[in-house]
Structure formats: structure tokens, C-alpha cells
Design brief:
The protein is α/β, with parallel strands linked by helices. It folds into two domains: 382 residues, Rossmann fold (3-Layer(aba) Sandwich); 76 residues, 2-Layer Sandwich (GMP Synthetase, Chain A, domain 3). Helices cover 29% and strands 28% of the residues. The strands form six sheets. It has a nine-stranded mixed beta sheet, sandwiched between helices. A hairpin with a 4-residue loop joins β18 and β19. α9 crosses α10. The termini are far apart.
Length: 478
């Protein structure tokens, strides 16, 4: 029964499993993964995936009909990649369970997606914990999408959503993204991000296009650069945190093989972009990844002059900034970012809502507020739900946080709105200090006044030991 379903997906129904597509395109002897000095070819990787998929096929509780939703709880590394691809190859729908999830958060995902089980352990000897798979309210409709992934959004301003992505939509978005990235068999991509949060339009993309992924396990600049030197890495995919560490390195390795440095997952600061380019002679290219869409914006053309932009739309995408009435805004004016293009998600799983009920004539409202310049580059300003109205003036918490985070005594902060009888709302800030640092509230307020308009300066400073974060490490707003 299962083999028939897979053959139907591969040929008869026009649906092709993404792992089968990778296998059809792969050159068996070419390197696919490098980790801890060991190279795995495409042939070796796909053989491991086939063995793990056959094991999953025999697991009690893995459904014989429909599409099984399978959780994956595994740390970064080759095992994660093998097990994730095995779930997809076996006809399952992959639901990543990040390591940092609390027991309550993990249980909520299990319940909301109706998992049939969770895969843990190593690819050479995985473990299977079976559940009584709960039926979704729209189980039959769910199965028609040929589901590949369910990824939960960050939930920075409310309850996270389960974003459903089919095999077909996954292929669409990695092809669209690669029109700008131009990843190919000659590339060796140095990977530093958590796989539970970044996998589909990254590692799947690299494998699909025949590149070699180098799995970096260290986070010290000297060790990262030694890995880059040893593997002759051509691309780095990381967060501003990684790039700032690399830019501060005092060594003499100039990374001559580097052709593309992509930064994502958090806003890029001007200082980090400047220092990285000075150190390695290459600009940092910021991109905007959106779970519902993929990678619609990448700053490949303007990273040198305008590093804080997320770039122009990739060729396959249309982008508009609209006001609250849904009308386009002028250049330089703030508007909500709307995007239209291939690879759009199929549905929200919990509660169930298909994409056609969410989009307007194919356009998706991202909830991000942004501006454009005369060259059409997009600059993010903040989230629509988090913006504060201070006496009729808009204040973006992200802008104030960026200023405060630059203070040498500050490790991290969160700007929130505080009710005010006259102004409606005024900004306040919660601050975590660097270890061993001391800072008075008035000093920090004085620092803000040097960079911000008066109405943006926090009126209250509270020093805290921790901040509420999402599972992906973003600031939780409410």
C-alpha cells in the first residue's frame, strides 16, 4: 500500500517526494555533508536515509493509510539530516521538536498536530515513541496536500501557528530562492544555525542543488574559521551573532574562498556589517525568511552600500507596502509588507485554515512594517502588532532595542508599552546586563537620548535576569 502511494507521488499523480527529487538529481560520489572531518557522499547519505526510512516504515503506530505526522527531537548534525529526510522519504510529515522547548510547549505541539510518534536518538540506532494519533478536524483535506512539513511560527505576539508545507510548495520555494543564492555543486556551505528552525529553505536547498553542507559545531571564531579553511567553504549561512564574532577575530586568515555570506534570523546591525566587510572583504547579505513564504527578499545587490536592507524582491516574487486601508504607500513611508509568489504555504494546521482563505488575491500580509528606498530596497521597521502609539507618534520597539543593545553593559533587552493617562502609551524597557556590569537607569536613559527622539526614549528601566523568549530565541512581545 505504501509503496503504491509513493509511486503515485513520484509518477502518476504529478507529486514527487522531495527526497526522491534530491536522489534523482544527485551524483553519488559527490560530497553531500562534512562533519567533524568526515565526508559523506550523496550516495552514502541517501543509503543511510533509505535504511532509516525502512526502519520507520516498520514502526508500530506509523500509519498504513493517510499521512503520518512524525515529530523529530534530535540535535544538530548528520543524524538530524538523515532522520528528517527519512521521515519525508517514508511518506511522513515532519514536525520538528526543538531542543529548547519546555515539556509543556512540546506537549502542546504533539497535541495540536496529532503526532503518531516521535523519532529520537541517532540515525544508526533511532528510538520511536508511539502515540495514539489524533485525527485533525480536516484530516482528509490535510492528506490531499501531500504534506512534507509542519513548522510552528515564532509566536512573538500571540499563539504560534502550525504552518503546513507540501512537497510541491517546498520545491517551488527552494528553486525560487536559488535564483538569487546561486548555490551549486561547486559550493561548500558552512552551516551554523539550529536545524529545528532552519532546514527547508537551506539544507534541503543545498542538497537539491548538489552542494556540500559543512556542519560547524563550534561557535568560537577561531574554530569556525579553521573549519572554513580546512573545507574551503564558499558560503556561510548564519546569524548576526556569528558574523559579529567572526568580524572581531584577530587572526590573519582572510577566507579567500568565500563568495557569499548570508545573515538571517535577527536584524543586522551596521557595525557588524562594516566590521565583517573590513575583515574579509565581502559584504554581509541580509535576507528575510518567512515560514509561510520562504526567502522572498535577499540583499544581494545592495549589501555593500545598504547593509541593513533585506533587499529587493527575488525574481519570482512581488512585494508591496500597504497602509491600513490596503493602499500602496509612497517611497520612504511605513507600510505593511505584502508578498505574492511561489512556494506559499498550504494551510495553517491549528486551527485549520487553507491558504486561499488567508491570502487576498494571492497576496500574503506578513505583519511586518517596512519602508522602501528609491532603488526598491526594503528595510524592516518592526511588527505591526508590536508598534506603540505615543501621543500619535509611532514607536517601533525593535528600533529602541537596537540602540540599547549597542550599550557595552547590555546583553539583551525588551521594549514594551506602558499605559499613560495623556499619551496613551509610553516606552519602557527590561534589560539584562552583561556579567559583572553595573549600570544606572538614568545612565541608560541618557544613552538613549543621544540616539533617539524624545518620544522614543524609555521612561522606565527595569533590570531583569531573563526575558520571555519564543522557542526560536526571539523576544516574546505579549
Amino acid at each position: 500500500m505504501k509503496s503504491c502511494r509513493r509511486w503515485c507521488r513520484l509518477v502518476g499523480c504529478g507529486r514527487v517526494n522531495i527526497v526522491d527529487q534530491i536522489a534523482l538529481r544527485a551524483t553519488a560520489e559527490r560530497p553531500a555533508l562534512v562533519a567533524d572531518g568526515v565526508t559523506l557522499t550523496y550516495g552514502e547519505l541517501l543509503e543511510r536515509v533509505s535504511v532509516a526510512a525502512a526502519w520507520l516504515d516498520r514502526c508500530k503506530g506509523f500509519r498504513q493509510d493517510g499521512v503520518s505526522r512524525v515529530g523529530l527531537a534530535c540535535g544538530n548534525g548528520v543524524d538530524y539530516i538523515v532522520l528528517a529526510l527519512a521521515i519525508l522519504k517514508a511518506g511522513g510529515c515532519l514536525v520538528p521538536l526543538a531542543e529548547e522547548l519546555t515539556a509543556a510547549e512540546r506537549q502542546e505541539i504533539i497535541q495540536r498536530t496529532g503526532l503518531c510518534g516521535v523519532v529520537t536518538g541517532r540515525a544508526s540506532g533511532p528510538d520511536w515513541v508511539a502515540f495514539e494519533m489524533a485525527e485533525l478536524k480536516n484530516e482528509a483535506e490535510f492528506s490531499t496536500f501531500d504534506p512534507a512539513f509542519i513548522r510552528f511560527s515564532s509566536g512573538t505576539t500571540g499563539r504560534s501557528k502550525g504552518v503546513l508545507l507540501s512537497h510541491g510548495k517546498l520545491r517551488e520555494r527552494i528553486v525560487a530562492a536559488n535564483a538569487a543564492l546561486e548555490i551549486g555543486p561547486g559550493d561548500r556551505v558552512l552551516w551554523l544555525l539550529p536545524m529545528a528552525h532552519h532546514f527547508a529553505v537551506s539544507i534541503i536547498l543545498y542538497l537539491y542543488h548538489g552542494a556540500c553542507t559543512v556542519l560547524g559545531t563550534a561557535h568560537l571564531a577561531a574554530e569556525i574559521l579553521e573549519t572554513a579553511r580546512a573545507t574551503r567553504a564558499t558560503v556561510i549561512y548564519g546569524a548576526p551573532f556569528h558574523h559579529a564574532l567572526l568580524a572581531a577575530d584577530q587572526g590573519d586568515y582572510r577566507w579567500p574562498d568565500l563568495r557569499l555570506a548570508v545573515t538571517t534570523a535577527a536584524p543586522l546591525q551596521v557595525e557588524t556589517a562594516r566590521d565583517f566587510r573590513r575583515r574579509f572583504g565581502k559584504p554581509l547579505v541580509q535576507g528575510l525568511g518567512i515560514i509561510e513564504i520562504g526567502l522572498p527578499l535577499l540583499n544581494t545587490g545592495g549589501a555593500g552600500d545598504c547593509p541593513t536592507a533585506v533587499g529587493r524582491p527575488l525574481p519570482a516574487y512581488d512585494v508591496e507596502l500597504r497602509d491600513e486601508e490596503g493602499l500602496p504607500v509612497a517611497v520612504g513611508a511605513v507600510g505593511e509588507l505584502w508578498i505574492k509568489g511561489p512556494g506559499m504555504f498550504d494551510a495553517y494546521v491549528s486551527p485549520w485554515q487553507v491558504v486561499d482563505e488567508i491570502c487576498v488575491d494571492g497576496w500574503f500580509a506578513t505583519g511586518d512594517l517596512a519602508v522602501t528606498d528609491a532603488a526598491g530596497r526594503v528595510y524592516l521597521r518592526g511588527r505591526k502588532k508590536s508598534v506603540m502609539n505615543v501621543g500619535g507618534m509611532k514607536v517601533f520597539p525593535e528600533e529602541v532595542e537596537a540602540v540599547i543593545d549597542r550599550h557595552p553593559a547590555v546583553r539583551r533587552c525588551r521594549v514594551i508599552g506602558q499605559p499613560h493617562a495623556v499619551l496613551g502609551t509610553v516606552p519602557a524597557v527590561e534589560v539584562i546586563l552583561q556579567a559583572g556590569e553595573m549600570l544606572a537607569a538614568r545612565e541608560l536613559i541618557g544613552w538613549c537620548r543621544g540616539f533617539l527622539s524624545t518620544y522614543k526614549v524609555p521612561v522606565r528601566v527595569e533590570f531583569v535576569n531573563e526575558l520571555p523568549l519564543t522557542a526560536s530565541g526571539k523576544i516574546r512581545r505579549a
